[in-house]
Each structure stands twice: as structure tokens, then as C-alpha cells.
Amino acid sequence: MAELDLFAEANRQLTICNACRYCEGLCPVFPAMEIRKVFTPNDIRYLSNLCHDCRACEQACMFVAPHEFAITFPRIMSEVRMESYEHWSWPRFLARSFSDTPKGVLLGLAAMAVVCATGFLMIPSHRLFAVHTEAGSFYQIVPYLAMILPAMFLVMYGSVIWLQGGMRFWSEGKESPLLNAPKGIGPLYRAVRDSFTVKYLGGGSAGCAYPTATPTQWRRVFHAFVFWGFLSDLVSTTLAFIYQDFLHILPPYPLTSLPVIFGTAGGVALVVGVAGLLVFKMRSDRAQAADKAYGLDYAFLVFLGLAALTGLFTLIFRSTAAMGTILIVHLATVAGLFLTAPYGKFVHFVYRVFALIRYQIEAQGAHPQGGH
Amino acid sequence: MKSDAQYDVIIVGGGNAAICAAIGAREQGGRVLLIEGAPEYMRGGNTRHTRNIRCAHNAADEFFTGPYPYDEYLADLVQVTGGPANLDLAKFTIKETERLPQWMSAHGAHWQHPLAGTLHLGRTNRWFLGGGKTLLNSYYRTAEKLGVEFRYNTMVEDLVIENDRFTGVMLEGEAREMIRGKAVVVASGGFEANLEWLEEGWGPAARNFIVRGTPYNRGSMLKNLLSKGAQSIGNPKAIHAIAVDARSPKYDGGIVTRLDSVVFGVVVNNLGLRFYDEGEEIWPKRYAIWGGLILDQPDQIAYSIVDAKTIDAFLPPLYKPFQSDTLEGLAGELGIQADTFVKTMEDYNRGAAGNSNVRMQTLDGVTTRGVAPPKTNWALPIDTPPYYGLPLRAGITFTYMGVAVDERARVMDNRGQPFKNVYAAGEIMTGNILTKGYVGGIGLAIGAIFGELAGRDAVTHGRA
């Protein structure tokens, strides 16, 4: 859909929805809609990122096709979301991977291939395939700096692009007078709370109409597993960094150490969550999301799942001869994950959190327009 | 009686009353078949377009903003309807609403917290999350789990009644399929989508109705019952109709086609004449009178006229307003009598001259002077181009006429005796309680209460 058509169609649907408002209890998108009468492209991009794709509204709607109003709310939100990722990302030629999933996946795979090839070609096989149990064993395979420098570069690169996208979203949003509401800590707190609990995958209270029409809380649970699992791994990595560079204790760490506990819990949660979300996605109704969304979602989930799985394997096989190979594959998937992070589904968390903050700020001062 | 019946209860219809009847009957242990005329994606009749239910309660709770006791509910009902047709049934209904929220929650309903600003009825009415279709989906899932059987896209042609006893239904179609049952609950709605029938009361004007709800409410079961000697109740001409955009879908446009622009300007007919005080009343009363007013106009059409001052004061309408920089031009756009229209507007503006500050939240008494009909509130001059026009037609919501029932929801016959195993629930029998006018959210309450009651009673007594 061309950009103009996309926003014209979103506007058409929002005009109908705003005259109806039956969905206002399902999620924040509809209350955010109700305090507006006209919808600029930026407004619509904001709403689309406030949308958690829970699909409860699709089930609630009397006006879905074949009704002549032909409302496809989850789908149009998904289409705009895809457009918004590309719109806010940078640089342009890489941002285009949002609308060209194979390109994005290839980018990730290429990163993996480069890391694997480098690893397997440069590390002497007697070291690669040996059993290492001594302190600093991982660095026998990949030297410390070779591991930490590219990793830090990728994370920083990704974070800069993410943050810049979030700031573009925010500054474009300032065209709306609604953002002039008092800010303070309250909205921020509520937005963070709602992110951490993934509140809006709750379909109001009955649950997500995902993957089927029957509401369920499982998608919210799986998503929480992924989210909390990822955070747990982040904590693990940070702790390992502290152990090593401040306490001067080299890995591998014992099973009862904090980095391993957090890492294992996070890894398991990630694998379970990703598996659940993948199965749900396969069973879901494709017509309710943008075509390109699926490629992007799958790519992200698979990279994330593989990174977690290979991480767990690294732990399990760390005292065997397979450790070197697994470690390289693990590092390669992590590289693929983070290289594509600013240009894949990973970005959704940035705009989702910003949108939730904006929602909470706007909600403080505004009242629904028109009335019943 | 013969015991070769396939079902203990057959439910005809698929809306709120029907599905509550199915649940009630199944929980009573009966084998239940629900026959819905609409295809599955459109199941549920006009319940799809509902969003709240009025229930009596003595205290505020998580979802009610304040108490709404039985006495107040009854008083409201008496005031609006001018007295229910059957006061005992009305009292029974209101008493029963006290336990409805709990019953609904137990059968899958989720509720919406009252939101500041939007919900004027937060004290008296309870909003179900996601509206009527979501409620129906929950009920259908509950019924499915309980073991109710369904036939969609299936119309009943005839209720077979032998010696005052129901024995089965004959389905529409070549096969003339017959399904036998020990009792029937007819919960198939009103006849608001049957324009030919409405024409009997309203004349050819009925063809210009816009039907706000499902096209499946054609009243064929009501007609069938009446032909079997059921006692009718309610005025066949009585309808509920509001002003909707004339460009709305002929059927099923629901809530979104309603226009709220009337009070912000004036309304003329296609002769270019005003015909009623546009500033008479504030929501919700104004909502319900304009349907009838429009029906009295030539070709059953009218036009809401506003100018640049007020076009942004109400929600953007679904369809773009017609627009022109001159009143003559607007008349041309709308295809109405230009000379008269311009004169009407000049007269009105003379009457409203000097009026400026209006307060829409209240009856502000800013009125016209020396104009007939007057506009008694919010009478701003309409003098700032561009001018806008929105075509209005009467959108019919529901009909009142139905069959008389007793306190067990059994259909009464013309001799004043109930049929032993023929029950009615929902819109087809709301005429027992509502005569004219209604309080929002009571239709659904009547449907749920008499539906569940009929379903249960049909199993316990139908077996005898």
C-alpha cells in the first residue's frame, strides 16, 4: 500500500471506530483515539505502536468484512507499524530492510556467516576442538578483546539507532498539543509498569484473541517469558562483566554463581517464550497482520531463540570438546541478532515503551471528543 | 405425547435471549438445539450492536458508579413508557436484574470500568467489555462447552403446533426438513428489517427506513405465532427510530451512522423548510425523536445544516458533509428547494441575530425570536461560510409489537391461555413491558431474564 493510501485507509477506519467506541475498554489505542478528532500520520503511527496486536477488537467488531465498512483494525495497525519502523529508522538504505524481510534476514545470516567463518578459519583446530576447563577457557577460543569489542560496538550501534528512532517519534509527536499535558514521574512509572507486565496483551481482561478467536492469557505469558528472560540474560552479562573486570574472576563461573543462575533462567525463559510465540504465530490468522510483519516477526523470534538456545548449549557443553564450536555459533547468532536489531522486529519495544509513556501523559489532561 | 423428540428444547433465534435460553435449558439438563438464521459470522441479531445493560443495585461497585435501587428503576420505566403493558412482568424483570451481573459474569461476560467523560450511564448501566459481539462470543463459547448444538444460516419456516402443543420446527428449503422437539423458545427478535411488513403501518414511507441492525430480523416467527393463535401485544406501528446519515448502509450500520449535528444548527426538509425546534432537548431525548420527525417529511428525508462555526463542535461524521460557500450553492449540492431554503435561513438568522455564546452542556436558553418553529436553545446564527449539509433519514432500531407471555415466558393464546410448551423471549415479547419509549439497556435485561427462564422452564415442564 502506498503511504498516502495507507494513511487514508487508516483514517477511514479510525473515523468509523471513533464513532463507535465499543472497543474502548480493550486497550489504550481506543481511549487514545477518543481524545482526537483528526488523525495526522504521526498520530496514526503513534496509535499503531500503542497497539499490541492482541486482536480482541477484531472479535468485538460488527463491521469487519464482509460488512461494507470492511474494518480490519489489527491489520491496518500492523501495516502502519511496519511503515513507522522504516520511517523512524536510519540510515535509509538499511531502514528499508523493514519492508524487505529477506534482506533483513540475509543481513543477519551474513553476520552469522562472517563470525563463524572468522572463528573457524582463524582459530587453530587443536585449540578449537580441545577440552578447556581452566579459568578464562572461553578466551582460549576467542580472545577477550575479539569478543568484547565487536559486541560492544554492535550493542552501542543498535542502541544509538533505537534511541534516535525513539526521539524522532517523540519529537514528531510534539506537533500534538495533547503532549503538553503535565509530565512528572507518574506517567513514566505507569508506562514502565505496563511494559513490564505486558498489560495490554490482556485484551482488557479476557485475554488475547490470539492465535484463535478464543481469548487466552498465554500470549501475554509467553511474551513476559521472552521479555523477562531477555532482561535476566542482560543482568547475567552485566554481572559477568563485573566479576571479570572488577573482581578479576575469570569465567567459566560455577553453576551456583549469579551470572550462571541469571543466564540459565533467562535462557530457559527465552527458549520457552520464543517457542510459545512461534507456535502461536504459526497458528494465527495471517489476514490480521501486514504481510511483511510475519517475516520480520519470525526472523526476530528465530534469531532470539537461537541465541538463547546456543547460549544454554554453551553452558551445558562448556567442559567438552564441543564447547569451541558451540561458542562460535552462539557468538554468531548474537551478532546476527544485534546487527539486525535496529532493522527488525526488535525495535518494537522502543516505540511501544515511548507510545505507552505518551499515552499516560496524554491521558492526564484530555477528555474524549464529542460524546454519546 | 410421542417421545421421539430429538431435542428437549429448540431455540429459534441467536441473539442474547436465545443464547441465554440455550444456556438455561442446557444447565437444566436438556438436550438443546439453537437455530440461528444468520451465518455464523453474523450470529446474534441486534445484540451485536448493544453495549450495556441496565440493572438494579443498591450500592456502587467496581463497575457501577452509584446505587440504582429497584424503586428508581421502576419509576424511570413507568415515566418513559407511560406505564408498562404488564406491570407485574415489569416488576419481576427489574427485581431479577439485581442478580444479572453475577449470572452474566459466571457465563463469560467481562466488564468495562466506567471511563470518565464517555459514559453518562455509569450509575444505571453496566458496560460489557468490547460490546455486544464480544458478549455473544463469550456466551456462545459457554454454550458450546455445555454441549448446546447449533445450526447457523438456517431459517425456520413453521412452528408445528398440534392440539395446542408444539411438536417441532420445519425448516425453510426444498428438503422441508423437520426437527422434533418437546418445547420451543422463540427468541427471533422483532420485525424491524421487514420493510414490507412496516409498510402495512407506515405506508410507502417505510421503504425509506434505514435499518440500523441485522437484516435477519424479519419477524417471520412472530407472524407464524400470530397465525397459530398467539395473542399479540403492542402497537404494530410503534417503532424506535433516530436520525442517521441518509448515505448509511441500508442494513446493519449500527451505532456509527447516527448523527449528532442536529443541535448545532438547523434542520430543513427538501422543500427548504424548518419543521421542528432543533434546540428542544439535550441527549438522550433528542436522540429518539428525530427519527419520527423525519418520517413525517416529504420523501422521509431532512438535512442538518451547520456552518464553519460549529462544524468542528461535533465528531467528524462518517460521511463527508456536503459543502458550499453560499446557501444557494449548498441547496444545489443537497438537491433541495433553493429559494425557500435561503429564505428559511434568512428568517432563522434574523431570529438568532446577536446570539453568540452558547453552552452545549446545558439547556442554555439562547433562543430565536419571532421564528416559527423556534429554536429554543443554542440558537447561533448560521452565517459563516462554508456552509455544510448532512442528509438525514430515519434509522429504525426496533419494533414494539410482539406476543403476550405469562410470568413463565409462555406464549399466551387468543383465549388468554398459555401454550404449554411454546415460550418467547427477547424483543419478540418486550412489548409486554415496553409500550412506547424505553430506558437504555433494558431490552438486553428482558432478553437475558426471560431467555434463561424460558430455557429452564422448557426443560422442567416440557418433559412432562
Explain the overall architecture:
The complex is a heterodimer of chains A (about 375) and B (about 475). Chain A is mainly α and about 375 residues long. In chain A, about 65% of the residues lie in helices and about 0% in strands. Chain A contains 16 helices and no strands. Chain A has helices at about 5-20, 30-35, 40-50, 55-60, 75-90, 90-95, 100-120, 125-130, 135-140, 145-175, 185-195, 220-245, 260-285, 290-315, 325-340, 350-365. Chain B is α/β, with parallel strands linked by helices and about 475 residues long. Chain B contains 11 helices and 18 strands. Chain B has helices spanning about 15-25, 70-80, 85-95, 100-105, 130-145, 195-200, 220-225, 285-295, 325-335, 340-350, 440-460; strands at about 5-10, 30-35, 50-55, 125, 150, 155-160, 165-170, 180-185, 210, 230-235, 240-245, 265-270, 300-305, 320-325, 385-400, 400-405, 410, 420-425. In chain B, helix 1 (about 15-25) links the parallel strand 1 and strand 2. Chain B starts with 6 loop residues before the first strand and ends with a helix. In chain B, about 55% of the residues are buried. The mean pLDDT of chain B is about 95. At the A-B interface, helix 1 and helix 4 of A face helix 5 of B.
SSE layout and pairing:
The complex is a heterodimer of chains A (372) and B (464).
Chain A: H1 3-20, H2 29-34, H3 41-50, H4 56-60, H5 73-88, H6 92-95, H7 101-122, H8 125-128, H9 137-141, H10 144-173, H11 185-196, H12 218-245, H13 258-283, H14 291-316, H15 323-339, H16 348-365
Helix pairs in contact in A: 1-5, 3-5, 3-16, 7-14, 7-15, 10-15, 10-16, 11-16, 12-13, 13-14, 14-15
Chain B: E1 7-12, H1 16-27, E2 32-35, E3 52-54, H2 70-81, H3 87-97, H4 100-106, E4 125-127, H5 132-146, E5 149-151, E6 156-162, E7 165-171, E8 178-186, H6 195-202, E9 210-211, H7 220-227, E10 232-233, E11 239-245, E12 266-269, H8 285-295, E13 302-307, E14 322-324, H9 327-334, H10 338-352, E15 387-399, E16 402-403, E17 410-412, E18 418-424, H11 442-462
Parallel strand pairs in B: 1-2, 1-8, 2-5, 8-18, 9-15
Antiparallel strand pairs in B: 3-4, 6-7, 7-8, 10-16, 11-15, 12-13, 13-15, 14-15, 17-18
Helix pairs in contact in B: 1-5, 1-11, 3-11, 9-10
